[in-house]
Structure formats: C-alpha cells, structure tokens
Amino acid sequence: MLTAKLNSFYKRYKIVIFSLVLFFFFTAISVVSYYRVINEQKQFKLRQLEIVGSLTYQDFKKIIYHNIHSLEGLRDRIVESNGNFKTFIKPDSERILKQNQSIKFVFFIDSTGVINFINPLEPNRKALNLDIKKLSYRYPDWFANSKDTLTNITSWLDLTQSGKAFLVDVPVYYNNAFQGTVSAGMDFKSQFDNISSKQNIFSILIKDNTGKTFYSYNEPNPAIFKKNQVYVKKLRPFSNRSSSTWNFEFMYDSKSELKATPLQNFILALSIFVSFLIGLLYYFYMLDKYQLKKDKAVNQRLNTLNEELKKERLKAEEASIAKTQFLSHMSHEIRTPLSAILSISEILEGKKLLASEKEFLKLMQNSSRTLLNLVNNILHIDKIESGKIELTKETFNPFITLKHIVEIYTQAAKIKGLQLTTNFADIEDTKVVMGDISRTEQIFTNLISNAVKFTDVGAITVYYEEKEVNGQLQINFRITDTGVGIDPSQLEVIFERFKQLDFGITKKHQGSGLGLAITKMLVELMGGTIHVKSKLGEGATFKVFLKFPTVDPQNKKVSRKKFRNLGHLNVLIVDDNLLNCRILEKILSKKSIKPDIAKDGDEALLKCVSKQYDLIFMDVHMPGKDGFEIVQHLRKIGNKAIILGFSADATKEAIERGIKAGMNDYLTKPIEQETLFAILGKYFF
C-alpha cells in the first residue's frame, strides 16, 4: 500500500520533481563555482599579503638601522679622535640631519646627565641644559645602558620641548672614561610613509615595546581580519638584541577586506536566476510532452490490460519461487547476506525517507547487528582465549575517547527517562597515551551500554580520573547505575561466557551474554583490573583500572584527515557476488569513484593486463582461482596497485595469508563506510 502511494505521488509530481532537480543541479554548480573563485581569490590575496608585507618589513628595518648607524658613526669619530672631533659636532650633526629624514634633532648628554648641546636649537631650546636625572622615566635606563656601552632606544615618548619621538642614546668612551652620549630624537613617519604610499590597498600598524602605537597608515583595523589574514612580525631596532622589540602588523585596508565583490555576488544571483528559468522552461516542455503521452496511453491501456494481468500473475509466481530459494540459501550463509543488508541500510540512511520507513530501517539494522554481534563476539572471545588477539599501539586521549562514547549513549538514556551525569566538567589538562584505542573503546562501550540496558528508572553516573606516575597514566573509570542490580552471590558468574542472570530479565533484555566476559578479558589483557559491587534491586557499580605509557605532548597526533575526492583513481572490484559488487560500487560513488568489475579471477587478470589500476578490491573465496592466488600472480608480474582483500572470513589465518600473498590490507564483511574511507585516506590522502 505504501509503495502504491509512493508510485502515485511520483507519477503525479514527476515533472515537478525533475524540474526542481534540474534547478538545484545548476544552482549547485553555480554556488560551487562561486565559492571556488572566492577561495582562490582569498588565497591569492593572502599570498600577496605575505610577500608585500615581508618586503615592507625589510624596508622599514633598513630605515631604522640606517638612522641609528648614522648616529653611531658620529660617536665613532669622536672616540677615534679621543674627543677632539667634538669641536665639529655641530656641522657633523647638521650633515646627519640632512641625510636622515627620521632624525629630528641631535644632542649631547654629558656624563653628569646634562644636555649641553642640541641641534637644531629651535624649537628645542627648552631641552638645552636639561638635567635628565630629574626625569625618573628617562635617567635610570640611560645610565644603565650607558654603563653597558650599549646603544639604547626608548619607547615612544612625549618630549620636554613638544611632540613625540624615540630617543636614541649612543654611549661615548675615551680616555678610559664615560664621557656622555650622542643622542637623537627619531620619528620614522615620513620615511615609512614614502614606502607605504606605494601600497595603497594595504594598512600598517606598528607598536613600540610598551604597546603604544607610534605609526599607522591607511586606517588599519586588524579586528576585522582573522589571525592568518594579518602579517605579523617582531621588529627589533637592534639586530643583535631582543630588547625594545616592536610589533609590526601588515594587512589589507578595510575596503579591501577578503570577501566577495559586489560583481561576484551579482553573478551568483544571476546564475541562480538563470537556473530557475531553465527549470521552469523544462517544466512547461515536459508538461506538454507528458499530456500528449498520457492521451496515447489511455487508448493503449485498454488493449493491454488483460495481458498485463497475466504477466503480473507470472511475476508473483516467480517472486514466490525466488523467495523460497532465497530462504533456503539464507540457512547456509550468515556473514555475506548480513554484509549486504547492513551496507544497503547505510546507503538508505542518506536518503529522504518517511518516518515509518526510517523506523523499519532502524529495526532492520538493529536485528542484523544483533546477529552479527553474536557471531563476532563468538569469534572475538575465541581469539582472546586462544591468545591470537594482539593489541595495537596508537596515540590517543582516553578522556576524549570516553567523552565521545558517553555522548553517544546520552540520547539512549534520555529516551528511557534516565539521568546520565559525569564529572567531566572538573577534568582539565588530560594526557595522551600509547595503547589500543579500539579495545579501550570496547571496554567503555560495553559497560555504558549495559548500564543503560539494565536501568529503567533513576540515574547513571560516570566517573573518570587519571593520574600520571613515573611515565605511566593510571586511569580509574567507574560507572554506577540504579538498575536491577545483581545478587552478591552471582557477581563472579556475570563475567562467564554466555551468562545472563535469570531472575526475570533474560527475555526482557536481549544479548548473547558475552559482553562482560569480553570486557574482563580485554581489561586483563591490557594489564588492568575490573571489579563490580552490587545488590539485587539496588543497581551496580563497575570499577576499571587501566594504565598506559604517556606520550610527549610534542608527539601528539591531533590532526584528522579529511578525505578528498578520489574520482581520479582507477579501481577494480573482483567478486563473484554481483550484489556485493553493486553495494561496494554504491559506497565508492560517494568519493566519485567509478570502478570496473570482474566476476572471477580470470577476468580480473585480463583487466589488469589491459589497464593500469591504482586500487583493487579482491574477494578471497571465488570459484576457480581464489583471491590469494590472483594477488600472488599480480605481484609476480610487477603489479604495484594497492590491493585490499575483503571477505566474510574474519579469521586471523585468512588475514595473515592475505598479507603474505601481497595484499596491502584486509577488510572483513560487512564493510563499514567509515572504516573503508579511513583505509582509502591511509593510502590516497
């Protein structure tokens, strides 16, 4: 009935749907092109900003060094003449003033701190014979730097006579004694403006070591830009010292802000309007065509009605036979059909479905995963007990891992009316460790899911604590619930395989009875401990202690890959099951991959000879040559493609045999999309 309604809706509004699809298709192309152009424009401007900013910074630095060196040159002539050159200080200072636009006046401070010479005298007469010992903001730094024989520059100061300037002091020593300083007032604005005026689309802001702005050009406003959109550099007046560091900021002016131009916005709007017109024209064209076709179909339908009824009856009979055959084969296959069901359901999750359809889809997923989890748990616990499971070593943050799992189960608890509380708000500065993240996730997940499953009223509390001791991070994890609880005499039984306590909850709460058994084995395998405390009807508390070696913060791997479009890859799927091929083909289409398909080993070898593939998905069990033989042959003839084995056979022996044969990696069915895309990102990022 639901299918009939959908078909009726589709037939009634087919033209409208196709018209809208056409409109949104062209609109999407326009929007993507728009943002691509904007992004390229933005990247170009950022590169231009860095280049021009670096050149301007170098020019400013040369101006500062040149002015200071000119003053130091006057000092050198006085020292080399053993003080005799002081008689020429006036003409020499006049020459310096003419040659250096940023030097506004030159003066000499004797060893007692008195200014006994200044040029030009006007308008600086107020500063002549000034005793700087009376200036608390001036004398201490002047005296300290003079004793260290260092050229010093002050912050941006208000001058005694008037105006503002930097005061540069160059100590003078001869006759084995400190004689005073050759000093100057400097303002670099005119020379800086001469350079800045050549870059009118940019703004400049420079602050001294105290944070005072002493130079700005073109009304800089760094607040409107992001950090990476402002070229920032430390500017030191003296190349050999880090004192008196200034802050140089170079940016576009506010009118040249990194955003789309009005013309670009107009073109986008025009493109969307044109897309609308195309959709509208298509609608009217198809409406006329559909009406004509409808009139012809009315006459044909009367003549073919009886024959269609016969065909439908045959289809129903064939469908009944096919259903019987399908149910027969289902008894002999478990993982392969489950792979198809779960993969198809993942694909359908991205479709627009009715609420009732989503509910059915969810039920299908849960039922399939319940059966798959049962099979997986049996294999998993067998691996642990036989010693075949190996722990991986990856860097991860246990607290972040737990936090993500709690977020997943918060919604499930909320649906049941439970309150799920944590102490996460009190936790700061968590550590990164080296260990098996997937096994750690499984421990946390099993315990939290059990708490939600067996609690119908009340609350669940998650407590997490970590402490670093001698390079080891010790983790205490505790989860408390107000659920059905456990009889103290049964506390050890719950960790046994295939055990669920039988006091009226066995049917109410589904499960294989393997979750806690696996959890305990994993905890002990990782060198930890797990304890439970409970009373019947009063809830339960599980405590887990784990420890991991910590990782140096510099070695943290916090970046995550974003998988890009992989449509350029040549890909081959080798599988005798066409359904598996189509499902994998559908999943790969999300990365714009259009694979070739080979139904057996011989066809795969022929395709590999005629075409160079970047990636090959190789089913393991096929009639004729199996996947292991094909991979071995391909490696012998020098095939360099990335080969990923995939099969319902999840045994360690099969995986090791595949890797030994030459496979780069091995995936087990059902293949989850996220796992598949992560593998692709590993080899093709």
Automatic annotation (TrEMBL):
The chain crosses the membrane at residues 15-37, 265-285. Residues 114-197 form the CHASE domain. Residues 329-550 form the Histidine kinase domain. It is an enzyme of class 2 (transferase). Residues 292-322 form a coiled coil. It comes from the Bacteria. It catalyses: ATP + protein L-histidine = ADP + protein N-phospho-L-histidine. PROSITE patterns: CHASE, HIS_KIN, RESPONSE_REGULATORY. The modification 4-aspartylphosphate is found at D619. Residues 570-684 form the Response regulatory domain. GO terms for cellular component: plasma membrane. Its EC number is 2.7.13.3. It holds the Pfam family HisKA. InterPro entries: CHASE_dom, CheY-like_superfamily, HATPase_C_sf, HATPase_dom, His_kinase_dom, HisK_dim/P_dom, HisK_dim/P_sf, Sig_transdc_His_kin-like_C. One of its GO terms (molecular function) is phosphorelay sensor kinase activity. Keywords: Coiled coil, Kinase, Membrane, Phosphoprotein, Transferase, Transmembrane, Transmembrane helix. This is histidine kinase. It comes from Aequorivita vitellina.
